[in-house]
Amino acid sequence: MAASSPSSQPTPRSPLVAVLDLGKSNKKVVLVDDRLAIVASRSAAFPATCHPGAGGTGEGQESILVEQVDAIFAWFLAQLRELGREFPIAALAVSTHGATIACLGADGRPAVPVVAYETDLGEAGSRELDAEFYRQCGPLERLQDETGTCDLPLLINPAKQILFLQQHFPRDWARTTTILAYPCYWGWRFTGQLAAEPTYTFNHSFLHDIRTRRPSSVALKLGCVPHLDVAMKRPWDRLGTLSAEVQAATGLGALPVAVGIHDSNAALLPYLLTRGDRDFCLNSTGTWCVAMHRVKHVQYGKDELGQKIIFNVDALGSLVKASFLMGGMDYQLHHGLIGGSDPGFAAERLAAALARPRDAILPGAFASQFPRCSGGALVDGAVVPLADLKSGARPGFLAEATLAHDLLNVSLALQSEVAIRRTGVKDGTAIFIEGGFRQNATFLAVLAALFPKNPIACTSLAEATACGTALLGHALVAGCDPQALADRIVIDEIPVERVELPGLAAYRTAWLKAAG
Fold first, then answer.
1. Separation of alpha carbons 134 and 132, rounded Å
2. Any idea where the domains of the chain sit in the sequence?
3. 158-168 and 122-137 helices cross at what angle (nearest 10)?
4. C-alpha dihedral over 48, 51, 54, 59, to 10 degrees?
5. How many CB atoms lie within 10 A of CB 409?
6. One fold for both 7-259 and 278-291+301-312+324-461+468-516?
């Protein structure tokens, strides 16, 4: 566990919501006031740890990765105890990263480990799991249309996670009576109460029919329908109060706890409340770059089935069409392979880079919008496989760190353009950039040039996930719908400067052809 990072200001007068924000990289306790100002924040890292392999068809596998749920819980209790001595906490609300479930037995205790979705099964293991999943449940395109779920690698689809647990922990799985989405698992840890809510339930799980919002044919085939709660609560509904155990450990009283929310949907919520009357797409960037656009109907376009495109339900119950790529992971991988530092934005230098359409960083090293491309680079028109780059090959432009970084940022902008367009944006749809890529001026310049008929702006809301989650707690305390709190939210829009990039159109055409 990494050291905690405290940050605090003088004690405020208004009651605070304690947000338990479980990101994949860091876990946070963030205190947020009723104007969405962050008053205190503590963070720590709890990487997934190895768990011994278990029998079933997975016998022989050395280990799987599991979340450190007990260590995280103990850390949360300690932080709440310290913060509660200094600040007036009125409620708790939870948001978590996606793709994680917890399975409880009839005794109310975990029946199987909380598996980390990044567990690497190896090429052969992944192939076998996917083949068995689609053999049992049906073809991908039919399932994607039914559930609004796309195929994702590793164990990022919860339904595949269930099949994996059935194979590797058959005896323990047999004891499972309740499947909890990750935010609701943490709600259960703090209150002892069970619930389900839509933002996580319908998020690329394969387990629910996105149109009827009932368990899907996949849930039926996997035999887990009895374990799923179909009585959805709203994310800001009262789950319960802190249990006696938690009250004793933290010194806090019987504080109310909201049901909880998926992290990307938490980041979206402040925009829905303040810009719900506008047509906009939020591109939330980081490890995962998720483009989210409200729509009226579930409808996949002609070439969208099989792509990384999903339909989800937002905190207010409306449909969202979302597409994504692991942009942060892609950047970090190639930044490390290139070496040196990112030089930042320079229009003349970028124009020179765009004049090289036979050189490119290709998508597909991680989940992307290009399923037929598996990463690597195009060097003077020839593909250099990703494996060669990882082995140290640096042919052509890849030996020039400045040029290579420019083309990396161009690649990420082109990938993001495809992802954003696939959410159904039209001319005039506002595109808001939130998260880490707001700091990447080259990425922003290219993206703005790719959308000449759309307002493009970075937003000022820091810690969007924590602030969106805090709205649940403040709505719970006030006994109102979050929409009644809209006037408390201030999100400035900082328009991205438009830069003339005359070589971009030709480069884009060549890049798209190379990326398939």
1. 6
2. 7-259, 278-291+301-312+324-461+468-516
3. 100
4. 80
5. 28
6. yes
Q: Which helix (H) or strand (E) holds 383?
A: strand 382-384
End-to-end alpha carbon distance in the chain: 41
430 backbone dihedrals φ, ψ, rounded to 5°: -75, 140
> Which letter does DSSP use for residue 289 in this model?
E
Q: How is residue 312 written in tokens?
A: 């989800």
Cβ–Cβ under 8 Å, residues 311 and 319: yes
CA distance 407 to 404: 5
Q: Which of 380, 332, 331 is nearest to 360 (CA)?
A: 380
**Beta bridge partners of residue 264, listed in sequence order:** none
Nearest CA to 186 out of 322, 50, 21 is that of: 21
> HSE-up of 395 (CA within 13 Å, CB side)?
17
Neighbours of 4 (CB within 10 A): 17
CATH superfamily of 278-291+301-312+324-461+468-516: ATPase, nucleotide binding domain (3.30.420.40)
Per-residue tokens: 432? 């808001």
CA distance 79 to 357: 52
What is the DSSP secondary-structure string of 54-65?
A: -SGGGTT--EEE
Spell out the long-range contacts of 128-136 with Cβ–Cβ below 8 A and sequence spacing 24 or more.
129/160, 129/163, 129/164, 129/167, 130/160, 132/163, 132/167, 133/159, 133/160, 133/163, 136/163, 136/221, 136/222
- In angstroms, the Cα distances linking 67 to 35, 119, 161 are 33, 10, 14
In sequence order, what DSSP letters do the residues of 134-176 get, joined into one string?
Answer: HHHH--HHHHHHHH-----STT-SHHHHHHHHHHH-HHHHTTE
50 closest CA partner among 38, 36, 61 = 61
- CATH architecture, domain 7-259: 2-Layer Sandwich (3.30)
- Given this model, what pLDDT does residue 52 score? 72
Amino acid at 229: D
**Partner residues linked to 41 by β-bridges:** 7, 30
Tell me the torsion sign for CA atoms 53, 55, 61, 62.
positive
What pLDDT, on a 0 to 100 scale, did the predictor assign at position 53?
Answer: 58
Low-confidence ranges of the chain (pLDDT < 70): 1-13, 53-62
SS3 478: helix
**How many residues are present in the chain?**
516
- Main-chain phi, psi angles of 324, to 5 degrees: -155, 165
- Greatest Cα-to-Cα distance within the chain, rounded to the nearest angstrom: 66
pLDDT value of residue 56: 43
455-513: per-residue pLDDT in tens?
999 999 888 999 999 999 999 999 999 999 999 999 999 999 999 999 999 999 999 99
Residue 338: in which H helix or E strand, if any?
Answer: helix 327-338
The answer to whether 167 and 56 have CB atoms below 8 angstroms apart is: yes
**Residue 147: per-residue pLDDT:** 98
* CA–CA dist 238, 236 (Å, integer): 6
